[in-house]
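Q: Could you fold this chain for me?
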Amino acid sequence: MSNTSEATTKAKEPQAENEALESGATKADAYADSFEPKPDLSDQGAEELLPKLLELFHNNRVELALALGLSRSTVDRWLNGKSRPNNSTLLRMRGLAQERGVV
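A: Sure. Below is the predicted structure, expressed as structure tokens.
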């Protein structure tokens, strides 16, 4: 590690974890503060998710399609209004958005 402060930070992480565990906290409690809650997207439909996901993938329809396990032409049909994502695809879209922290 070339950065001294980076090495110091990494050295303090196990120490902080051990202190938390000694005080009666569980390992899950020690890490709970380091994670942000994922956004709730259960009420968002394809009309709301699609533009957000496209923005996440820099308007690259091919990359979005690959991330969802679909073809680019399927994403094109959604954008042209010729079709809509089915329920399982909508669930994958919500999962992807949640995984990537899209709000």
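A (continued): Residues 65 and 73 are 9 Å apart (CA to CA).
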